[in-house]
């Protein structure tokens, strides 16, 4: 019986593929017989694509840039002056500094006196941040940390405060206010236009290929449309309503498939599979990020993963299983598969670098992160992958600043790295060649500036609306669909869509910065800012490098460049942004509020254990 069912399934798949093949062959023959139809179709859709792109992105970008991020109130802290200060984060600094979450303007209170931290099960703990006046809980001195229950008296340098719960009616009122004011834009209009964009793109690529149009083009775009709609419907089934980030990511991924179909159609299904795996990674990582305790438990495992991925690349390269591309030995070849472990190492690195508030003030923790950074950048330098090394370094600066806020230390680290880069350049002089070409590409049009000159010429020939997907010539230049992909976008799709692609990445970064103001934990804030900084800096290196405004570093355009590892990493990094989206019911990476409010304990929580500050 099972065998018969399998046979029926196989026959059904064969019939579907046969039907698609017949349609493709018929369409290819039709296009070959009527070339004027192809010309008219291309002429029309060239102008239609920018309009559709604006319709797809305008609502999502506007929503991400303008929606207010109202803080959530988790508890109140009663102050000596009789006022109650709302605690709007899971992790709150109490101190005299104006930058503290709760400002206590008393001379006996240190600038950063204590941290009051909430666990996901609504249990609170106080951490003494090496204050001079000390911390006391219900009259007992706190050594390191101690659990705090609602109604407990917390004394900071003799200044007494009381932790109070949020009244149920206040919770309901605030929740309703946030739902009314932070409602995400409806995704269905953008999804409809994106589907139309994808169908027309497949048609344009078929028209450009003519009689030689492969079945892979319509099949890949059909699968993309099915997966996209399946994802949106599945998320709506679990009552999630925020899809702006995913709409942007699917739009950019559509451009990636189009670029791949134009430059390397034989890689189209590989890129599609990478997109599907990236989406799975996005969902799995987003769900994993829901539980902050679980996240904290594997941070150093992820640090080991980052070093392991880069170390394995070096070892396999030495064993002959690696491959050097454009001077960097950062590829691993296993049979028909090739991938860049350094792309996945970016996710592990950010995961390890982000930290919760109770760990931010430990110098040992920051020192270990600095050691991790040195190991990662050192491995990348040995691979001669200096573009990725620069990305790691900028990400380190963002994380280190968010963790410490110490500009002096960061300046010294930057100076040391610049000196180290000078030593590396003296050892590997071919790297200087790229800097020698920088700004002089036209003077070396047939040598060092060959790629940039062709990229700028192709981009200029595309004008505002492009020459049509699949109709360009830049794909004949090496790395056109990876390092120079911005030139391909401008040539085939036009400057409007090229700029919109860049604006999409910038929008994600602006959203992350705005959302972090209402972030629940410093881990989510640091991870989101680091991920978006990485995406923006990588985009800048790719775009400005391809047009000779920066040295050509050989890095990819997130979501757009042809490359499975890059696609996988881009979707994985997006999960960190999704975890900062605290709008009601917007993100699957945030648990829905419980229908029944948990009981409020005045006094000590039952079975509440002491908090280990080194846990």
Descriptive account of the structure:
With 615 residues, this protein is an alpha+beta fold. It contains 20 helices and 14 strands. The strands form three sheets. Strands 2-1-11-10-7-8 form a six-stranded antiparallel β-sheet, with no helix packed on it. A hairpin with a 5-residue loop joins strand 5 and strand 6. The protein is globular, with a radius of gyration of 27 Å. It starts with a helix and ends in a 37-residue tail after the last helix.
Give the helix/strand layout.
Layout: H1 2-33, H2 35-66, E1 75-78, E2 84-87, E3 91-95, E4 102-103, E5 114-118, E6 124-128, E7 135-137, E8 140-141, E9 145-148, E10 153-156, E11 159-164, H3 168-181, H4 188-209, H5 216-237, H6 244-263, H7 268-288, H8 292-297, H9 299-318, E12 322-325, E13 328-334, E14 337-339, H10 341-353, H11 357-360, H12 363-382, H13 386-404, H14 407-427, H15 429-437, H16 450-462, H17 485-493, H18 495-516, H19 522-546, H20 564-578
Parallel strand pairs: 3-4
Antiparallel strand pairs: 1-2, 1-11, 3-5, 5-6, 6-9, 7-8, 7-10, 10-11, 12-13, 13-14
Helix pairs in contact: 2-4, 2-6, 2-18, 4-5, 4-6, 5-6, 5-7, 6-7, 7-20, 9-10, 9-12, 10-12, 10-13, 10-19, 10-20, 12-13, 13-19, 14-15, 16-17, 17-18, 18-19, 19-20
């Amino acid at each position: 019986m099972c065998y018969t069912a399998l046979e029926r399934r196989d026959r059904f798949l064969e019939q579907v593929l046969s039907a698609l093949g017949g349609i493709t062959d018929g369409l290819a023959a039709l296009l070959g017989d009527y070339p004027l139809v192809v010309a008219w179709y291309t002429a029309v859709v060239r102008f239609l694509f920018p309009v559709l792109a604006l319709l797809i992105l305008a609502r999502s970008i506007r929503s991400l840039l303008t929606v207010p991020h109202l803080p959530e109130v988790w508890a109140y802290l009663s102050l000596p002056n009789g006022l109650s200060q709302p605690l709007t984060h899971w992790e709150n600094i109490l101190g005299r500094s104006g930058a503290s979450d709760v400002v206590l303007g008393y001379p006996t209170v240190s600038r950063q006196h204590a941290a009051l931290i909430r666990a996901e099960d609504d249990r609170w703990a106080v951490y003494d941040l090496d204050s001079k006046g000390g911390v006391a809980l219900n009259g007992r001195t706190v050594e390191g940390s101690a659990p705090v229950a609602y109604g407990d008296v917390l004394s900071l340098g003799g200044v007494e405060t009381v932790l109070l719960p949020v009244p149920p009616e206040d919770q309901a009122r605030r929740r309703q206010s946030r739902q009314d004011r932070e409602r995400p834009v409806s995704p269905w209009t953008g999804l409809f236009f994106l589907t139309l964009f994808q169908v027309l793109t497949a048609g344009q690529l078929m028209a450009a290929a003519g009689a030689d149009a492969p079945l892979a083009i319509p099949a890949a775009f059909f699968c993309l449309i099915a997966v996209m709609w399946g994802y949106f419907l599945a998320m709506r089934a679990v009552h999630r309503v925020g899809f702006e980030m995913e709409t942007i990511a699917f739009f950019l991924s559509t451009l990636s498939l189009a670029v791949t179909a134009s430059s390397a159609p034989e890689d189209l299904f590989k890129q599609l599979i990478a997109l599907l795996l990236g989406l799975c990674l996005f969902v799995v990582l987003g769900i994993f990020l829901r539980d902050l305790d679980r996240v904290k438990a594997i941070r150093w495992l992820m640090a080991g993963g980052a070093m392991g991925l880069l170390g394995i690349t070096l070892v396999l390269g030495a064993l002959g299983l690696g491959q050097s591309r454009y001077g960097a030995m950062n590829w691993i070849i296993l049979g028909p598969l090739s991938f860049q472990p350094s792309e996945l190492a970016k996710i592990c690195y950010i995961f390890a670098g982000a930290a919760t508030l109770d760990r931010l003030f430990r110098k040992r923790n920051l020192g270990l992160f600095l050691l991790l950074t040195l190991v990662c950048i050192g491995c990348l330098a040995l691979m001669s992958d200096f573009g990725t090394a620069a990305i790691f370094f900028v990400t380190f600066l963002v994380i280190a600043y968010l963790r410490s806020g110490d500009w002096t230390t960061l300046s010294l680290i930057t100076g040391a790295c610049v000196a180290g880069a000078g030593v590396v350049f003296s050892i590997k002089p071919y790297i200087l060649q790229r800097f020698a070409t920088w700004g002089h590409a036209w003077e070396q049009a047939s040598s060092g500036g060959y790629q940039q000159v062709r990229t700028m010429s192709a981009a200029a020939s595309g004008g505002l609306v492009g020459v049509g997907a699949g109709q360009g010539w830049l794909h004949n230049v090496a790395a056109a669909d990876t390092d120079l992909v911005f030139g391909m976008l401008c040539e085939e799709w036009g400057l409007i869509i090229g700029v919109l692609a860049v604006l999409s990445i910038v929008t994600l970064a602006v959203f992350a910065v705005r959302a972090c103001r209402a972030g629940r934990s410093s881990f989510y804030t640091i991870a989101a800012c680091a991920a978006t900084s990485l995406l923006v800096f990588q985009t800048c290196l790719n775009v400005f490098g391809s047009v000779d405004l920066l040295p050509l570093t050989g890095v990819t355009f997130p979501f757009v460049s042809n490359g499975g590892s890059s696609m996988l990493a881009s979707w994985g990094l997006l999960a960190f942004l999704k975890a900062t989206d605290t709008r009601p019911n917007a993100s699957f990476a945030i648990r829905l509020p419980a229908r029944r409010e948990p009981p409020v304990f005045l006094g000590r929580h039952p079975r509440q254990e002491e908090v280990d500050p080194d846990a």
